[in-house]
Amino acid sequence: MSEGVRITRAVLREVPLRLKEFFEISSGGTQARRVLLLTLEADGVEGWSECVAGETPGYSYETTQTAWHVLTRWLLPELTGSELEDGRDLCPAPWLRGHPMARAAIEMAGWDLEAKRRGIPLRKLLGGQAEAVPVGVSIGLQKTDAELLRRVDGYMAEGYRKIKLKIKPGRDVEMMRAVRDRFPDAPVMADANSAYSLARDLPRLREMDGLGLMMIEQPLHHEDLLDHAALQREIDTPVCLDESIRSPGDARLALHLRAGRIVNIKPGRVGGLHASVAIHDACRAAGWPVWCGGMLESGIGRAHNVALATLAGFTVPGDISNSSRYWEEDIVRPEFEMADGMMPVPDGPGIGVEPRIGRIEELTTRMEVFEG
Ligand code: OSB
Ligand code: MG
């Protein structure tokens, strides 16, 4: 490709989307998502992305509002007008610290734009081979075990290949044991979103160790890799890191410390797709499996996740579920729908799904446009 990329227009929108059901994790719950969508235009080609920041700072310090601020005040004003060889290398304000979710939105829209310029699927630009990826489902905390068992039963019947259950102190061993008793061979795992402490909860975590779980995700503090390493020495169940990994540097440190055995990669959390590929490569070299997590994305973020999950090291089913598991109606066409626990990877150019622009415009509550 000889022609360079010059971003002539960037549009940031906030689009409220209501989840079909309340989604609760140890640090709080979500029903009404405030999705940020970014569109970058260059030579009539549009790249799309979704910022994964949540409504509250209960998973990361970033929120819809901080991401809006960082994008509109610092990142997007520096983006338009400059000329680049490759859309994947968009990196405005390299001096800006933190805010990987805000930054990832630009980087990921750049990947979609570059793939569309070349007329190839994002999967190919990333180096992925798979035409469908194995997927699972993440189930929020439920009021009762009976309610949880009913959901597990339904999702198993749909064919999901990994069932992830949110846990917190008071809703853990007994609840997981009820699931294990009912579904002795099910591919079940737990995600604590940092709700435990090694000093206080090691006995509980040892009890969890006897339940034959695929893994336990982010049991301890999001900034404590040493404690995760100590825990992994105490239990046989693989520890999976989510919140603790915010960059390739974090991943290298986790590998060095043996702070787990598996990494959940969310491109939005780690600053984008280059960083995701770097983390994938480092884990693969060390023999750690990875899988693609989710942040309750619309079809636009989901399309990026599906493309990433085609890389060879993504051997564990991702938190990538049907559009209909989240939304009455998604904002892309076609919607995501798996078959037999495998999500087909769109094979059109870029993310390979069409944003429903009419519906997006109708839903938009605020918008900022940058031209250069
Ligand atoms: O910890 O993986 C998590 C959703 C919001 C914030 C954190 C997490 C999650 C999920 C949902 O587990 C996964 C999905 O998008 O289906
Ligand atoms: Mg998690």
The CATH topology of the largest domain corresponds to TIM Barrel
Oligomeric status: single chain
* Tally of strands: 17
CATH C-level class of the largest domain: Alpha Beta
Average pLDDT value?
A: 97
The biggest beta sheet reads:
7 strands, parallel
Percentage of residues in helical conformation: 25-40%
Residue runs with pLDDT of under 50 for 5 or more positions: none
Short synopsis of the structure:
This protein is α/β, with parallel strands linked by helices and 372 residues long. It is built from twelve helices and 17 strands.
List keywords for this structure.
372 residues, alpha/beta, Enolase-like, domain 1, 2 domains, four-stranded antiparallel sheet, binds 2-succinylbenzoate, binds magnesium ion
Overview of this protein structure:
The structure is a single chain. The chain has 372 residues and is α/β, with parallel strands linked by helices. The protein has helices at residues 64-75, 100-118, 122-126, 145-158, 173-182, 198-209, 225-234, 248-257, 273-286, 299-308, 323-326, 357-363, and strands at residues 5-6, 9-25, 28-42, 45-51, 83-84, 132-134, 137-139, 163-166, 188-191, 216-217, 239-241, 262-265, 290-292, 332-333, 342-344, 354-355, 366-371. The protein has 2 domains: 5-119 and 356-371, Enolase-like, domain 1, CATH 3.30.390.10; 125-344, TIM Barrel. The protein contains 12 helices and 17 strands. The chain is globular, with a radius of gyration of 20 Å. The structure holds 2-succinylbenzoate and magnesium ion (MG). The site of 2-succinylbenzoate has 12 residues, from loops.
